[in-house]
Amino acid sequence: MLDKSSLSFPNIQHPTSNLFYIVPNGYFSLILHAHLPFVRHPEHPEFLEEDWLYEAITEVYLPLIFVFSNLHESGARPRLAMNVSPPLCEMLADELLQTRYTRHLENLLALSEKEIARASADAPEFLPAARMYRENLSAALRLWTDTYGRNIVRGFRELQEEGVLEIITCGATHGFLPLISTDEARRAQVEIAVTNYRKHFGRQPRGIWLPECAYEPGIEQLLADAGIEYFIADSHAILYGEPRPRYGVFAPVRCPNGVAVFARDLETSQQVWSSVVGYPGHPDYREFYRDLGWDAPL
Amino acid sequence: MPFIFPGSSEQLTPALAPLPEPTAEVRDKLAALSIDEPLPDTYAGDRIRLLVQSPYRLYLYWSHARDPFQTLRRLFGTNHAARYRLALRLTDIESGAESLFEASPVNNFWFDVRPDSSYRVAVGFYAQGRPFIRLLISNEVTTPRVGVARTSDATPEFHVAAPEFARVLNEAGYATDALEVTLEAADAATGDETTRRLADAFIGAGAPLLRDDSFAEMRALLSALAFGVSLERLLPLLSPALAGWLRQAAQREAAPPDASRLLELLRSTLALELEDDERYDEATAEAMRRAARFVWGASDVQMPAPGPRLWLPSMNEEFFKRRARRRNI
Fold this sequence. Notes:
Chain A has helices at 50-73, 86-92, 95-122, 127-147, 152-161, 183-201, 219-225, 235-239, 266-273, 292-295; strands at residues 11-13, 20-22, 31-34, 80-84, 165-168, 207-209, 230-233, 253-254, 260-263. Chain A is of the alpha/beta class. Chain A is globular.
């Protein structure tokens, strides 16, 4: 049986009743950052760097939308924020890249069929993996073509409009703001990002993920001028703030001009990003750069 | 027979997969995009830009509209002009102190500088005993303060005492900053005095007289040493006075100052422990590059491995009383 006294957060009695509220010690804010450099090469029939986008659509964006939609349909309120950067929005909405991605996905699916045939005959230990890929890729293709009509920006937009997700923006080209030489160019990074956000999501963005989380004093004014209410910065943007922030990175603070700052939590970020301690660097985690065409026997 | 995926919207074979031929207009535009076009050496303009990379590093790049030596030779004659070299003059705005460097032939340069200071750089000609001839002058930049702020909010709602703030820093993964704040706050009234006592105990009596601005340097030094950064690595990065004195102290002592001795002192002085007593492997040492501010050129872009956690006792009066009672027992 749950003993109220064992809870680590305080119980507060409602002023006019005998009800108790359990007051949490804090809130966890999960903010995802989705950005890729703008890679679109119509001058070549195939271009290696475009595969970054295709891999991310298959492995990240489609599964994310799928999970968000399922959560929403099940009545959950995941209350997530996600940045979809302007270059990424433009690529996802681009007809040529949409066509090329469709071809890429179909090719992968065809490869998985071939791999199932190969594994069945010569390498049964890989058969479950090959079947898993066929299943996942088939699901991805159905989502891509049937559910979202090749336009997953629209999928993100619908999730925002239904209150599942708050989408924020990023720099126009993900430019590192503190090192951009002129005020005009910095301003352009922010204002073009806002314009691009309006184009794709039909409203004013409330927040921005600063490119590389890089802040220096003064950037908050560019954001305020563009109507942005909060930004995400690196941990030391808050920890080294003056005066000392009482709650460190564990609470947002406001700049003197009223724009709020949320800082990244170092340990959580490491789990995602670090090649040393994060899960992507673990030997058991998937190695994206293994190539079946190279690994499989001729 | 090429494989055609059933139901393919493109009706393309994976092996061939041709795209439609671009129109003539698009073809012309694509032809203009040469992927082999080399970058020019210069953009034919006078340009200079000074950038802050970290509290300790500045980066300068510049270009000239014309070869400056040609102009010099035309004005001074070949023999006279040969005495000049292209140089960079770094000026500390506040103190007015100037340093001269030979200009790199690749038109960019890294400077080692001090935190919380403003700088400007001039590119020009220098010859011994002659006035510096300025060609380009950079923008002015200010390096950020290194480490946390000294001030706490005056309002009760947001005021944070140093021990509490040290705990927040430690939980946030900024253990070296937490240690510095702990040193500063070990005795609220005389944090600097505590730093001096620790420095004396660690390195030996006769430390150089610490000024207000050098207590922070000493605290950062002690933090970096406690976190396993070697003295050899730190020495070139310290202010000349502290580095010189440390070298002398190391020569006097049979054993050079090391982290394990410092940890003993921290334990006895502050009752402060590191959660993990093991010395740090390469991965952890890499993590220290983020927070150990003495390592110049450190970049926060590289995510660090998790650093060791400090065990930070509450430095209130009750803690010291309990500690004293335990010792008496």
